[in-house]
Specification:
heterodimer; A: alpha/beta; 27% strand; globular; B: alpha/beta; 6-stranded mixed sheet; 37% helix
Chain lengths: 305, 240
């Protein structure tokens, strides 16, 4: 459904994308995972036919993003990262406006947007500017879906949104996908990666890895332990000073310690006790997406140095 | 036992008929990392604006770093530091220009700004980059600089409003190490975040819903109390 081949794009001296290639299959929920400034939005704008790449080419449903941009625009729903609606129009007016731009009516595809729009109905006469962050997000999603696109592009729909609204948003996405729509979504939240069929890990305009979440995690090469102690800062500093440590990062209530070979837990326990951390807990664990991302970033820094 | 650095009693703020913050009370100890969580629209930003002396409460009282937020909001402003993800440094000013600007805003004398600026550059490892525009610095360095600048007047408490939003995992984790270091140095850290794993890094966590405090305790105790494996589950149980 989406094919990008060796796409590069620079803005002045800033290289936003370096030779990025990816394909998104029909009815897939595909995630671009990476921080702000990684190049995700530039890729979205190229796929949405709003920006021309310096090199490489892209196609959406078989149409070239430069030559056939008109066809693509009718088949695409795009929700940009910044709030894209008219703040002076009401909820209902925004929706009606988007429907008319695409030559359709709100009623025609109401079934598709119903699960999303239902939650907005009590506020349908409120101006978009006066909606809360989560509500704005849902209105923007409704507007992007109003012409029943084949593909939905969502650029960081959950940035700055609280954990509860984020969860609700992803529940809505899974419903939209079941209606047969292909979704490309970007996010800086690693925990959302697991909800995608396939993901691309993005950093500095490049794709570090592209695969299913399960395979990405399976590529983790190091040995990983979760270590817990009451004084987390001291624990972190102590683990960093241990000669066997490859990396140590805080993760929730534990520190994730990676090593290049399997460690002897007793040896580490002794070391921690010796450094004023008696009774620490050490547990071997499987890596998550964030562990793998950290490993890839770590490798990248080492090759650059 | 030292005085708590923040003492809030029955703090309330109304906008017309809407009560954004509804009689909240809590205390924060010196040197504590205090996590302030809540859904969008729960009243967090309104509460923080009152604590920083930027918004007048409708009722209730509060002392922050020994200054009264009702009677003396300007004194509050001079005794705290503030940093947010969206806005804190000027991208088209250089590193040194930003430091001098904030030193001036916080009312430090020129000679003192010069001295602190040199220490700050040394500590953040930005030597040789003093003239570089902040917009051209990698995000990790920019964040380091933003936090250090918010601390240039040695405030007793620093407010960090979603300091790690949209940041890559390494930078995010390095930033938390700076928070630990800041708190270990005796500065109280008052921080908001949407990342629930970061809630675990706090000494205590306060969760707001609909303008009120729903829960306030150490992460471990909250997890036990709400029978949850992590803070994400606690948050979903309380805020949904």
């Amino acid at each position: 459904m989406i094919k990008a081949e060796n796409i590069s794009k620079s803005f002045g001296l800033v290289k936003a994308l370096h030779s990025v290639s990816l394909t998104v299959k029909e009815n897939e929920l595909f995630g671009l995972i990476g921080p702000d400034g990684a190049g995700k939005s530039t890729l979205f704008r190229i796929l949405a036919t709003l920006l021309i790449p310096d090199q490489g080419k892209a196609s959406v449903i078989g149409y070239d993003t430069i030559k056939n941009y008109r066809q693509i625009r009718m088949l695409l729903g795009y929700m940009p990262g910044r709030f894209s609606l008219y703040p002076d129009l009401t909820v209902e007016e925004n929706l009606a406006f988007y429907a008319s731009v695409f030559g359709t009516s709100v009623r025609q595809h109401y079934q598709l947007i119903e699960p999303v729009y239902k939650q907005l109905e009590p506020f349908r006469n409120r101006r978009a500017a006066q909606l809360s962050g989560g509500m704005k997000q849902k209105l923007a999603l409704s507007c992007a879906l109003i012409h029943r696109p084949k593909i939905l592009l969502l650029d960081e729909p959950t940035t700055g949104v609280d954990a509860v609204s984020r969860k609700e948003f992803w529940e809505l996405l899974s419903g939209i996908r079941q209606a047969g729509i292909t979704i490309l979504v970007s996010t800086p939240y690693m925990d959302e990666a697991n909800l995608c069929d396939r993901i691309a890990l993005f950093q500095d305009g490049q794709i570090l890895s592209i695969d299913t979440p399960a395979n990405i995690v399976a590529d983790y090469e190091l040995h990983l332990c979760a270590v817990k102690a009451p004084d987390k800062y001291l624990l972190l500093k102590t683990l960093r000073s241990w000669p066997n440590t490859y990396s140590a990062y805080p993760f929730g209530d534990a520190v994730h310690l990676s090593t290049t070979y399997k460690i002897n837990n007793n040896e580490l326990k002794q070391y921690l006790t010796h450094h004023a951390l008696p009774g620490s807990q050490i547990m071997s664990i499987n890596a998550g997406i964030e562990d793998r991302f950290l490993e890839l970033l770590h490798q990248k820094t080492l090759t650059h140095a | 036992m030292p005085e708590p650095i923040i003492i809030i009693k029955e703090l309330t703020r109304k906008f017309g008929d809407f009560t954004a913050v509804n009689h909240i009370s809590f205390e924060v100890e010196a040197g504590e990392i205090f996590g302030f969580l809540g859904a969008n629209g729960a009243g967090k930003t309104t509460a923080i604006r009152m604590l920083c002396g930027l918004l007048k409460p409708s009722s209730g009282s509060g002392m922050v770093a020994g200054a009264d937020i009702l009677k003396n909001p300007n004194l509050v402003k001079s005794r705290i530091g503030y940093m947010s993800q969206r806005f804190s440094l000027y991208e088209d000013l250089s590193v040194m220009e930003n430091i001098r600007l904030y030193g001036g805003i916080y009312g430090l004398k020129k000679a003192l700004v010069k001295k602190r600026a040199a220490q700050l550059i040394e500590k953040t490892g930005l030597n040789g980059l003093e003239k570089r525009l902040v917009g051209d610095l990698p995000l990790g360095w920019r964040q380091k600089l933003a936090l250090s600048t918010a601390l240039i007047h040695r405030p007793q408490v620093v407010f960090l409003d979603e300091p790690t939003g949209g940041v890559d995992p390494i930078t995010r984790k390095q930033f938390w190490e700076m928070i630990y270091e800041t708190a270990a140095g005796g500065t109280t850290v008052f921080v908001t975040t949407h990342y629930m794993d970061e809630a675990e890094y706090c000494d205590r966590v306060c969760i707001m819903t609909e303008g009120m405090i729903r829960a306030l305790d150490k992460p471990d105790i909250l997890k036990k109390k709400y029978d949850a494996g992590n803070m994400d589950e606690v948050f979903l149980k309380l805020a949904r």
